[in-house]
Amino acid sequence: MARTKLYLDTRAVKDGKPAPLKVAINKKSETALISLNVFLLPNQWDKKAGKVVNHPNRLFLNNYIAKRHIDIDTLLLKLIESGEIANMSALDIYGG
Q1: Beta partners for 48?
Q2: Contact indicator for 26, 4 with CB cutoff of 8 Å
Q3: Which residues partner with 40 through β-bridges?
Q4: Do 72 and 35 touch, CB atoms closer than 8 A?
Q5: What is the spatial distance between Cα 38 and Cα 72, in angstroms, rounded to a whole number?
Q6: Could you say which DSSP state residue 90 is in?
Q7: CA–CA dist 45, 90 (Å, integer)
Q8: pLDDT tens readout for residues 4-44
Q9: In this model, does residue 90 exceed pLDDT 90?
């Protein structure tokens, strides 16, 4: 079974610089990260709620992020329903 979650990727970002927001696809022990082309400071991301906060465009960004996340989850459901996901890696799922 594969699952998704939103992930603010601060690994290679210097303090005070925006980090890319990504959707992580996890399948077994593999993870694929899909960039959403959204960049946020850590204080602009509420990890627990999965929402943009303290950002002037938070309403637009939250709607955009929700749509992209739903699109990816819908793709996962179609792959599960068809049985195709069984032989796919996390990278294969979104065309990695």
Answers
A1: none
A2: yes
A3: 19
A4: no
A5: 16
A6: H
A7: 25
A8: 999 999 999 998 899 999 999 999 889 999 999 999 999 99
A9: no
Pairing of strands 51-52, 45-46: antiparallel
Instruction: Give the residue among 52, 74, 63, 62 at the shortest CA–CA distance from 4.
Output: 74
Place of tokens 């990278």: 91
Confidence (pTM) = 0.88
Six token digits for residue 63:
């709607």
Residue 93, token pair as written in the block: 């799922």
Per DSSP, 17 falls in state S
**95 pLDDT higher than 70:** no
Distance CA 27, CA 15 (A): 31
